[in-house]
From TrEMBL:
<keyword id="KW-0472">Membrane</keyword>
<feature type="domain" description="Sulfatase N-terminal">
    <location>
        <begin position="30"/>
        <end position="322"/>
    </location>
</feature>
<keyword id="KW-0812">Transmembrane</keyword>
<keyword id="KW-0175">Coiled coil</keyword>
<comment type="similarity">
    <text>Belongs to the LTA synthase family.</text>
</comment>
<protein>
    <submittedName>
        <fullName>LTA synthase family protein</fullName>
        <ecNumber>2.7.8.-</ecNumber>
    </submittedName>
</protein>
<keyword id="KW-1003">Cell membrane</keyword>
<feature type="coiled-coil region">
    <location>
        <begin position="371"/>
        <end position="402"/>
    </location>
</feature>
<keyword id="KW-0808">Transferase</keyword>
<keyword id="KW-1133">Transmembrane helix</keyword>
<dbReference type="GO" id="GO:0016740">
    <property type="term" value="F:transferase activity"/>
</dbReference>
């Protein structure tokens, strides 16, 4: 545990920022329903196939006066996919660069969101119709202090209501309502959808939009399954309203990770109407939608600042009015203007307000042009070009150093199981 003071100093100097006073406590005492939307990517939002909106409900929800919609929000997962996204959200730490931390370090101590909200009277549950050993969830949820995991045995699953990976999202959400109702309030419940999962299988009767037409069956099939997920979330909102739980809850919806890999770049370029998918585009495709919906709030807006999954824990803690000064974490409150000026991806790429850094080059974040090219176009002499080039290189190198340090500290906490040495002063169960 010798590294702990150094890590704490780094966090205090570099990560710790003011939280939003305006949003402090806005969700105090309310239920938090967190929907992990399987493979939901940003590119699907506001898109059309054959003149039909792909995600009509979510597109409207993004504009709703009770919704804060984050438009430049990145998934930061590695090989652990959904489990990595869960790890990021619950701990505000990075998953590992190889393997899934849920498997490799499922028995560690953590200082998770569920643990921190327990003192405020919150119970925490995960509702997911899959077996409990998948991603070693049962052990990891225990380590992250999640009180209960209701897996596939809590659902009525039959061949008729299943497709692909298991229970379809519509019956899943429908059957989840009584499970939510029986929970003691206030609760934090994570719901993990399943139908919009590779290879994106869907029964004909559930398809309400055409497939895309390209040489990638994966991308083609993705469109009707994303639409099905959109409809299932709409149905869930209606059911929540009918049940009376809606007003007492804050609903967070987050795309967990990409669904369409770079193997489908030709088809993706066709979908996005681009000549090709550049390394810059590849990073931008790691954007996933994030909605924070607070019924009755009325101040919702689209927030364009760069942000990522690492930011959810400090954001939700602040919304619940929970003090987290002593916490060890690597993200910032999404509602604060005082934030780190970069988002790190697990492979060491990063995004700042000005640049996207990937594959050893910095790109202009707004236009996607490589900075070398921008400098060549915008300068009038070799001297000016070389000065500007040095400036950009220094900026990108400095951020890269921060990113590498941050990732290595997060790794050190996991590899050394360092939380077991830290007393956060909370009551043990
Ligand atoms: C499985 C589901 C999918 O339970 O969460 O996980 P993924 O394969 O997307 O990581």
């Amino acid at each position: 545990g010798n590294e702990i003071p150094e890590i704490q100093d780094f966090i205090q100097e570099n990560v710790d920022h003011e939280r939003s006073e305006e949003m402090n406590g806005v969700a105090e005492g309310k239920n938090v329903i967190f929907i992990n939307a399987e493979s939901l990517q940003h590119f699907a939002m506001d898109s059309e196939v054959n003149g039909e909106e792909v995600t009509p409900f979510l597109d409207d929800l993004a504009q709703d006066e009770d919704t804060y919609y984050f438009d430049n929000f990145y998934e930061q997962t590695g090989q652990g996919n959904t489990s990595d996204s869960e790890f990021l959200v619950e701990n505000s730490m990075y998953p590992l660069s190889r393997g899934a931390v849920f498997f490799t370090h499922g028995g560690n101590d953590y200082h998770s969101f569920p643990e921190m909200i327990e003192d405020k009277g919150y119970t925490s549950t995960v509702l997911h119709s899959n077996n409990k050993s998948f991603w070693n969830r049962e052990q990891m949820y225990n380590s992250m202090n999640i009180d209960e995991f209701k897996g596939e045995e809590s659902y009525d699953v039959s061949p008729e209501n299943s497709v692909g990976w298991g229970l379809k999202d519509k019956p899943y959400f429908e059957q989840s309502i009584p499970l939510l109702e029986e929970q003691e309030e206030p609760f934090y419940t994570k719901m993990i959808t399943l139908t919009n999962h590779f290879p994106f299988e869907l029964d004909e009767e559930d398809a309400t939009i055409d497939k895309f037409d390209s040489n990638s069956n994966t991308l083609n099939n993705y469109i009707p399954t994303v639409r099905y997920m959109d409809e299932s979330i709409e149905q869930f909102f209606d059911d929540l309203k009918d049940s009376g739980m809606y007003e007492d809850s804050v609903i967070v919806i987050m795309g967990d990770h990409i669904g369409i890999s770079e193997n489908h770049n030709n088809a993706m370029a066709q979908f996005l109407d681009k000549d090709e998918i550049t390394p810059y585009d590849q990073v931008q495709l790691q954007r996933v939608p994030l909605f924070i919906h607070i019924p009755g709030d009325g101040n919702g807006e689209q927030i364009d600042k760069i942000s990522g999954q690492i930011d959810l824990k400090p954001t939700m803690l602040n919304m619940l009015g929970i003090e987290s000064d002593e916490d060890i974490y690597f993200g910032n409150d999404l509602f604060s203007d005082d934030r780190k000026d970069y988002i790190a991806l697990r492979n060491g790429d990063f995004i700042t307000d000005d640049y996207v850094s990937t594959a050893g080059a910095c790109y202009d974040r707004e236009t996607g042009e490589p900075m070398d090219q921008v400098i060549e176009e915008e300068t009038n002499s070799e001297e000016e070009a070389s000065e500007k080039s040095e400036e950009v290189q220094n900026t990108c190198e400095a951020v890269q150093d921060q990113v590498d340090t941050e990732l290595s500290y997060s790794d050190a906490l996991i590899y050394g199981d360092l939380f077991r040495f830290i007393d956060f002063g909370e009551e043990e169960e």
